[in-house]
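Hi R.,

Here are the chain sequences for the assembly we discussed:
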Amino acid sequence: MMEKVLEKASSMNNQSSNIVYNTQQLNLWYGNHHALKNIDLEIKENEVTAIIGPSGCGKSTYIKTLNRMVELVPTVKTSGKILYRERNIFDADYGVEELRTKVGMVFQKPNPFPKSIYDNIAYGPRIHGIKNKKILDEIVEKSLRGAAIWDEVKDRLNTNAYSLSGGQQQRICIARCLAIEPDVILMDEPTSALDPISTLKVEELIQELKEDYSIIIVTHNMQQAARISDKTAFFLNGEVVEFDNTDVIFSTPEDKRTEDYISGRFG
Amino acid sequence: MKYIDHNSVVKRMNSRLIVNRILKTLFFLATLFALLTIAVLFYRIITQGVGYLTPEFFQNFGSRFPAKAGVKAALVGSIWLMCVVAPVSLILGVGTAIYLEEYAKKNKLNDFIRMNISNLSGVPSVVFGLLGLTIFVRALSLGNSILAAGFTMSLLILPVIIVAAQEAIRAVPKEVREASYGMGATKWQTITKVVLPSAIPGILTGAILALSRAIGETAPLIVIGVPVIIQFLPENLLSQFTALPMQIYDWAKRPQLEFQNVAAAGILVLMMFLIIMNSIAVFIRNKFQKRY
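And here is the predicted structure of the full complex:
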């Protein structure tokens, strides 16, 4: 009896130390379509977790569930738990707004607002009530530096963000996400609309960001997952087939289906 | 085996090109017809009315004598009317559109409401006049005042503004809303900071059309009982008044020929009023115009 309690206590301790997201038996339906089936995943702090899998396997759905953006689709139903820092994000008293200030998101297509670069970055801090111009200036500079784009835009902070190239726009979106000082950054195929050089820049940026943030990235590009991630989860038909260290997944996967996928036999 | 025989395609090419040319000519004639009609209309009105467009025309009240008749009361009345119609219809219309597009759930009841708002814009204006007479003039005892007429006109153009605003709101890309929600913005913050700034040009375009309709509409005013000849300016929103289309209608139906020319001058004033209103709206629209 005593042992059990101790065991529980120590496992709790372990969890709180470095697990950011603990997904337990997550199921998700779009209407009648069962999109995610019994997902169990533990995502650790200051790591890059890549989610790979063929189109329609549920990887984007999963990442959008982590900040509950998936609920913008009206027919979505979920069951199970996602513990973010030990608190279930589906709890009735857990507001999505609160969750999303801690969990930032970068989308597939660069989606800056049709505003100036400055206003794009300052958007998040402003909606959370920061009005002091000096503080906003500092946040803007810090975020743009964090997204490695400060030198390219520092002289034209007041120009429209749409005047930038696609790759720059995506880094502006990353900077905008950093401006709310999140704990986790979710990235939904952030480089799929970018050219190879911009992709490289974003990948390098991700490597730098993981020092301070936990990053979960969905990618179609397996080389990308291999290059930048610490852990990789392979999704297929709404299930997690395999989740392990990236080098294990790409060298000695346990499951035949993972091997088939990464060796390009399907998907 | 080839399915396309290029020789026969070339042979038939000529007749295809001829059909294309004929239709192009037909469509051009259709455009020309519309333009000609407008040109004739303008020519007639300007030649008839321009002689009466004197400073006195703007300073005089209505009169039995064509030479002394003026639009002062009607012009001021129309301005007062717009001061009621523009804010009331814009606030109600944009508010409804925001609710329907952003907050309302997609269900049968809301689909039904959406469909019927579009249908409402097809209801004849006389019917709105009767509605105004029953509710604003009689039930709320506002009489044939600026307020009663303004509310009636607002109801008349509300569907047009709602539909235009809904379309403008719907045209805002989903991605920028997601970006806003993704940072923890509430729905209202997203609406005021992202959706409305992008939708304002579209909303204003619809509002211009709707207000232009309200300013030229006569039937509801007749039904409400707005008088034609008024020898004083309105003092507040509950004053009696008359409006430009009422005045023009009155002049046009008088037997004296000279009054036809006075009516033409009145129409010119109405058109100038419209052009000024439209340019203000276009100015605001261009200020907000942003590209994606």
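The domain at 19-262 of chain A is CATH 3.40.50.300 (Rossmann fold). Chain A touches chain B through 28 residues (CB under 8 Å).

Let me know if anything looks off.

Best,
T.
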